[in-house]
Amino acid sequence: MRRITRKKALTLVRELDAFPKVPESYVESSASGGTVSLIAFTLMAVLTFLEFLVYRNTWMRYEYEVDKDFSSKLKINVDITVAMRCQYIGADVLDLAETMVASDGLIYEPCVLFVSSFRTLLHIQERLRVEHSLQDVLFKSAIKAPPPVQTRSDNNLPSPNACRIHGHLYVNKVAGNFHITVGKSIPHPRGHAHLAALVSHDTYNFSHRIDHLSFGEAVPGIISTLDGTEKISSDSNHMFQYFITIVPTMLNTYQVSADTHQYSVTERERVINHAAGSHGVSGIFMKYDISSLMIKVTEQHMPLWKFLIRLCGIIGGIFSTTGIFKNMFSIELFIRFNLKLRVILNN
C-alpha cells in the first residue's frame, strides 16, 4: 500500500512539472543558435559585472529634523592671523543674552604675516559651491582638511608684525558675535568694552588670514567654508563682517560617525568713515546664528536581497529574449524552406 501511495504521489508531482525536459533526440544544435547563446552569455557577464559595481557603490541620504539639544555647549575652533601686534588687539564672544564668554582658551602668538598659498583649498571650496555632489565624495573618503599654516621661525625673518590668535572657546547654543577689534576686552555691567583709547589709529590694520574656523568637533570629510580666506585692508579703519548660519550635523558613514556642525557664510566689508556716514567699529566681526534644524547624513548601499533580485531579472530577461529571437529565426527559416520547396514542386 505504501509503494502504491508513493507512485501516485510521484505521478502527481510529475504532472505538475511546469518545466518538462525535451529528449536529446529532439534537440538539434545549430551555428546560429550557438552564436546567439554566445552573445547572450557575454551580455550576461557584462551586465552582472556592472550590477556588482552598482551594488558596491554607496550614496548619502540626507534627513532633516528639529534639533532638541539646547543645553550643551558649542565649541568654536579659531585660527586667525591679524596684521597687528598682539598687545593692540583682543578677541572675545558676546552672545545674544549679552553674556561675555571668557577668551582663556585663545592663545596670542606674535608672528610674521605672509600671503600663503591656499589655491587648492580655495579651488575645492569654489567647486563645492557649484557641484554639491562633491561633498558626498568628501564624506565617503573622510578627507581631512589641510593643517593650518604654521608660523615660520627663522632668524633671518623680520620682527613680528602680526598676531596669530588660535585655540577654542565654549559658548552657549544661542546666537552670538565673535569679534577681534582694537584693545583688550574688559567686563562691563552692560556687556563689555575694549581699551582702544591708548592705541594709535596709525597702527590699525585688520588685514587677516583665516587658517581655520569651525564649530563643534573636527570631523574628517568636512572642509570649513572660511578656511583659507585672506583679506587685505585698503584702509586703516576697516570693518570685516561675516554673517554665519550654523547647522548641526549628525554624520554616520562607514569611515566616520560623529556629531558636528557645518555653516554657511555671507561676507561684507566697508571702510569706516564717520564724516561720510559710514559708522561702526574697525575690526573683524563674525556674527553667528544656530539653525533649529539638524541634518542627518547617512551612508547607504543597496541591500543584498535587492542585488540578487536584480541579478535574477537580468539573467532571466536575457534568456527569455534570446529564446524568442531563436524561435523567430527558426520560424523564418522554416517559411523560407517551404517557399523554396513549393517553387521546386511547381517547376
Features:
347 residues; alpha+beta; eight-stranded mixed beta sheet; five-stranded antiparallel beta sheet; 30% helix; elongated; ER-Golgi transport; transmembrane helix
Topology summary:
Blueprint lengths: L1 H14 L15 H26 L1 E9 L6 E10 L6 E7 L4 E2 L4 E6 L7 H12 L3 H8 L20 E11 L3 E7 L2 E4 L2 E4 L13 E8 L13 E3 L6 E15 L4 E15 L11 E8 L2 E9 L2 H43 L1
Helix pairs in contact: 2-5
Keywords: Endoplasmic reticulum, ER-Golgi transport, Golgi apparatus, Membrane, Transmembrane, Transmembrane helix, Transport
GO cellular component, one term: endoplasmic reticulum membrane
Main location: endoplasmic reticulum
The geometry reads as elongated
Number of strands: 15
Helical content stands at 25-40%
Broad structural category:
alpha+beta
Biggest sheet architecture: 8 strands, mixed
Query: If you average the pLDDT, what whole number results?
Result: 77
Note the beta-strand portion. 25-35%
What does the model show?
Residues 13-98 form the Endoplasmic reticulum vesicle transporter N-terminal domain. Residues 161-324 form the Endoplasmic reticulum vesicle transporter C-terminal domain. It is a multi-pass membrane protein. The chain has five helices and 15 strands. The chain is an alpha+beta fold. Strands 1, 3, 4, 7, 12, 13, 14 and 15 form an eight-stranded mixed beta sheet that branches. A hairpin with a 2-residue loop joins strand 8 (185-188) and strand 9 (191-194). Helix 2 runs antiparallel to helix 5.
